[in-house]
Write a structure and sequence with these properties.
Blueprint (H helix, E strand, L loop, with lengths): L1 H20 L12 H5 L1 H17 L4 H11 L1 H4 L3 E2 L14 E8 L13 H15 L3 E10 L7 H8 L3 E10 L2 E9 L3 E6 L9 E9 L2 E9 L13 H5 L15 H7 L5 H31 L5 E6 L7 H7 L2 E3 H5 L2 E2 L13 E6 L3 E7 L11 E6 L1
Parallel strand pairs: 2-3, 8-9
Antiparallel strand pairs: 1-11, 2-14, 3-5, 4-5, 6-7, 7-8, 9-12, 10-12, 13-14
Helix pairs in contact: 1-3, 1-4, 3-4, 10-11
C-alpha cells in the first residue's frame, strides 16, 4: 500500500507540474499536455489529499508536495476568489456600464431543460428584463423570422433599444443559429474575426459609443468538444460517426443521437471518439483564440472580450485571450467561478476579459440562473 501511495504521489506531482506549463504550449504543436490543464482542479485536490496524508504520517515527502501545490496558487485563484465586500468606488468622470454574457443554448429550442421550451425561454426573457444590462452578449443564439418562438424583436423590446449586431453561422429556411450582441448604446462599427476552418463557432466585434468614449466589445463562441452537454451517452453518436450534438447549430436533438442512445457501443470506441474530439477541439480553439487575441491587439479602442471560450483558466486559449487583460472574475468576483452548469463541476469556461485601462467595479457568476447549461456572467465596468 505504501509503495502504491508513493508512486501515486510522484505521478500526481508530475501531472500537476505539467498542468502548470500547459497554458504556454500551443496544442497545434503538442495537444496532449492540454489535458493536464483541463483536470488541474482535480490534480490540485488530489495532491492536497496526499499532502495531508504525509503530514499525518510525518513524512518528509510532505515538503515536496507542499512546494508543488504552492507553485499552483496563481492558477488556483483563477477558480476561486475572495475579494473584499465593498465595491470599488466609481470616479466622478467615468461612465459605468453593465455587461451581460450568456450562452443561452438556443433558448432551450430542443427542450433540453424543460419539456415545454417556451417555459425556459420565458424564464430567460424575465431574467434579461430584471438584469436590464446595457450590453448583452449571447452565444448559441437562435432566432427565426416568423417570430413564433424567439426573434430579434423580442430582445429589442426587453432591452428597450434597437442597437444590435447579429451574425449567423447556420441558417435553414427562416431559422438561424449564431451569436448576438444587443446594446442600449449606439453601435457605430461591426465586424467579425475570421477563422481558418468553417465551423459553428464565431466571434464578432462591435464598436459601441458610450458617452465620449468608444469601446470594442468582442462576443466569442470558440470550439466546442461536441460531447453533448448533459448526458455522456450522447457520446455514442460520435462513436458511430453519425454526427454530434452542438447546440450552436441545427442538429439539436437529432435522430442519429436518439438512435445512438439505443445502441450498445463498445467502451473502446467511445474513448477513442473522446480523444479524437478533444484533440480537434484543442487545436481548433488554439487557432481561434490566437486569431481573436491578434485582432483585439490592434483595436483602436479599449477592448472587452465576452463569451463562451469552451476552455478552462489553465489553458492555452485562456492564456492567449487574457494576456495583458483583466479577468473580471479575478478582479471583482467572489467564490467559485464555475460557469458550466453541466455534469462536471469546477469548470469555468465563460469569461469577461477587459483591457487594463478599464476599471472593473463588480462581477457576478449567476449560479442561481439555471435555464441553460451555462450560467450568465454580469459585470459592471467603468470607462
Amino acid at each position: 500500500m505504501k509503495r502504491i501511495l508513493i508512486i501515486l504521489n510522484y505521478v500526481s506531482i508530475v501531472l500537476l507540474l505539467l498542468s502548470y506549463i500547459s497554458p504556454f504550449i500551443d496544442p497545434r504543436i503538442f495537444w496532449p499536455i492540454a489535458l493536464c490543464g483541463l483536470v488541474f482542479p482535480f490534480l490540485l485536490i488530489g495532491n492536497g489529499l496526499l499532502l495531508l496524508y504525509w503530514i499525518v504520517k510525518r513524512k518528509k515527502r510532505k515538503w515536496v508536495s507542499l512546494v508543488v501545490i504552492l507553485l499552483g496558487m496563481p492558477y488556483a485563484v483563477r477558480y476561486l476568489q475572495i475579494n473584499s465586500g465593498s465595491d470599488p468606488a466609481q470616479s466622478e468622470e467615468g461612465v459605468s456600464i453593465d455587461i451581460l454574457s450568456f450562452n443561452v443554448r438556443l433558448f432551450d429550442l430542443y427542450n433540453w431543460k424543460n419539456a415545454e421550451n417556451e417555459v425556459t425561454r420565458d424564464n430567460i426573457y424575465k431574467f434579461l428584463a430584471d438584469e436590464d444590462a446595457d450590453i448583452m452578449c449571447f452565444q448559441e443564439y437562435y432566432s427565426n423570422d416568423r417570430g413564433d418562438f424567439t426573434g430579434v424583436s423580442h430582445i429589442v423590446e426587453i432591452q428597450g433599444s434597437g442597437y444590435h449586431h447579429i451574425e449567423y453561422s447556420n441558417s435553414i429556411g427562416r431559422s438561424h443559429w449564431g451569436i448576438a450582441t444587443f446594446s442600449k448604446y449606439p453601435i457605430v462599427n461591426k465586424g467579425s474575426v475570421s477563422f481558418s476552418q468553417k465551423t459553428n463557432n464565431i466571434c464578432i466585434f462591435s464598436d459601441i459609443v458610450v458617452g465620449k468614449d468608444t469601446v470594442r466589445v468582442y462576443n466569442a463562441h470558440l470550439g466546442s468538444v461536441h460531447f453533448g452537454y448533459e448526458e455522456y451517452d450522447f457520446l455514442q453518436a460520435v462513436a458511430q460517426r453519425e454526427g454530434s450534438r452542438d447546440s450552436s447549430g441545427p442538429l439539436g436533438k437529432s435522430q442519429q443521437i436518439e438512435k445512438a442512445r439505443r445502441e450498445d457501443v463498445p467502451f473502446r470506441d467511445i474513448v477513442a471518439s473522446m480523444v479524437r474530439l478533444l484533440r480537434d477541439a484543442y487545436i481548433n480553439r488554439a487557432e481561434q483564440a490566437s486569431a481573436v487575441a491578434e485582432h483585439a491587439s490592434s483595436s483602436p479602442y479599449p477592448v472587452v472580450i465576452c463569451g463562451d471560450i469552451n476552455d478552462t483558466p489553465v489553458s492555452y486559449a485562456y492564456q492567449q485571450l487574457s494576456d495583458q487583460r483583466l479577468d473580471a472574475f479575478m478582479e471583482a468576483g467572489n467564490g467559485f467561478g464555475n460557469s458550466y452548469a453541466g455534469v462536471v463541476p469546477l469548470f469555468r469556461i465563460d469569461y469577461i476579459l477587459c483591457d487594463e485601462r478599464i476599471h472593473l467595479l463588480d462581477f457576478n457568476t449567476r449560479g442561481d440562473i439555471d435555464y441553460s447549461d451555462h450560467y450568465p456572467l454580469s459585470c459592471t465596468l467603468e470607462l
